[in-house]
Amino acid sequence: xxxxxxxxxxxxxxxxxxxxxxxxxxxxxxxxxxxxxxxxxxxxxxxxxxxxxxxxxxxxxxxxxxxxxxxxxxx
Length: 75
Hints:
Layout: E1 11-14, E2 18-26, E3 29-35, H1 45-60
Antiparallel strand pairs: 1-2, 2-3
């Protein structure tokens, strides 16, 4: 893990396309701005974990198919 010290309005680059800007430091909270291409998904960790859990649950569930009623169809 890389640990950096930054001040307000200073930036961190990740690769060539992602910029993290320190927006505000207030007490024990830091507000960050993330500038990334639209094809790069950026999530808070708790949201990312929830999405992964939902995807895993959906992949493990058995599909439910409703009973089809063909009795009203003409031959």
